[in-house]
Amino acid sequence: MSGIHLHYDVPGDDFTRAGEASGSVKKALRQLGIPAEVIRKVAIAMYEGEINMVIHAYGGTVDVEVTGEDITMVLKDTGPGIEDIDRAMTAGYSTAPDNVRSLGFGAGMGLPNMKKYTDEMTVESEVGVGTTVTMKVYITPKA
Amino acid sequence: MTVQDIKEILECEVITKDTDLSREVHTACGSDMMSDVLAFVKDQSVLLTGLINPQVVRTADMMDMVCIVFVRGKEPNEDVVELAEERGIVMMKTRYRMFTACGLLYDNGLRGGCER
Ligand SMILES: Nc1ncnc2c1ncn2[C@@H]1O[C@H](COP(=O)(O)OP(=O)(O)OP(=O)(O)O)[C@@H](O)[C@H]1O
Ligand SMILES: [Mg+2]
Prior knowledge:
Chain A is of the alpha+beta class and 143 residues long.
């Protein structure tokens, strides 16, 4: 079925602007009348993903698809890629440099948070090519 | 407790303009790590932090928080204040340090919302 499609370019060189796309999605979902708990899950998961694209890659694109049943987010970057995805998904694992940590990120909690707040999540990555994170949040809980 | 109560307990100076101090707050969170803040969603309405970059406002916004308190008298630049004003988030600063600020609020009945 066809839904509503939103597309954003996330600039990789401006940390202060990271999160703008997530803020816009949050606003759009509110206008569509999506329940507040669902919006919050989508907003947090996408925000963590957006921050990762900026601090670990060089920015990228976000595509959001909203249907009657669920919201799908695809975050794609052409950054350095992730060598060991299972390790990256471990709470507390981070390769963020100190300057990122002094900005309030680099706790190694982003990917675990994204997993926690979404109903489906896949990470595809190739070193030297890039990373694509796909997340889905159900609007109505599945039986 | 309301945002106004927090202002009085922590002897805060309000930074944002035209803000509503009557809003009810239930729980708070004190951290300089934004992903730690984002890890626990339990209707936390106040964020105490020593960071002053725009991501503090975005984090609070994603969590639907209503108030940010900067500890140790820190104050962000105009762009960051504007970001909070656009989102209806009250920003204040207190002279107290993080530990003391959190302790004072706890003493007055505010809780973390995700205690074990
Ligand atoms: N888009 C990406 N491109 C390349 N590496 C990534 C990407 N996303 C995550 N990583 C790698 O996975 C690690 C863990 O990511 P995660 O988001 O869990 O933690 P973090 O970003 O380091 O810290 P936090 O999210 O708590 O601020 C990162 O430190 C980084 O090495
Ligand atoms: Mg991260």
